Amino acid sequence: MTEPTTASTAAKGGFDLGQGPGRLLVWLYGVFTVAAASRSVVQMILDFGRAPLAYVLSAAAAVVYAFITYSLVRGGNTARRAALVCCAAELAGVLLVGTWTVVEPSAFPDATVWSDFGMGYLFIPVILPVTAMMWLRRAGQRPAP
């Protein structure tokens, strides 16, 4: 049985990214947006000089998370493609920063959201973009009703 299609869903490309497993992704990305943004703002206000790179990277992660959340809520094929690109960039960032923090820990006197591949966040930062890309690719393969 197919999901009911609203006029706005049909206008956006025939599917709603925020339904089914997409709803969990919207929730998780929303939580990570708030967590990364809150963490970076507090750290930048209280002690920016201690680890500016780490705090700016956490703020950048928050922006990426916010854009992915927005794209998932918006739905449609254009938003799906934009979210795929952002998820790929997010995964690249997690892998780059994660590797950097393992190889050169002195470069990060304080942790970022992506430090040690997101270990401080139960590795969700490295799992989330992979899961989201799988969902977005699957959603793009669904036929329009």
On the 0 to 100 scale, the average pLDDT is: 85
Low-confidence stretches: 1-13
Structural class: mainly alpha
Please indicate the count of domains: 1
Task: Describe this protein with a few key phrases.
membrane; transmembrane helix; disordered N terminus
What would your notes on this structure say?
With 145 residues, the protein is an all-alpha fold. It has one domain (18-140). The protein is built from 5 helices and no strands. It has helices at 7-12, 21-47, 52-74, 77-103, 124-141. It is elongated, with a radius of gyration of 17 Å. The chain crosses the membrane at residues 24-46, 52-73, 82-103, 118-136. Keywords: Membrane, Transmembrane, Transmembrane helix. This is Integral membrane protein.
Quick take:
Keywords: Membrane, Transmembrane, Transmembrane helix. 70% of the residues lie in helices and 0% in strands. The protein is elongated, with a radius of gyration of 17 Å.
Task: Give the topology.
Layout (H helix, E strand, L loop, with lengths): L6 H6 L8 H27 L4 H23 L2 H27 L20 H18 L4
Helix pairs in contact: 2-3, 2-5, 3-4, 4-5
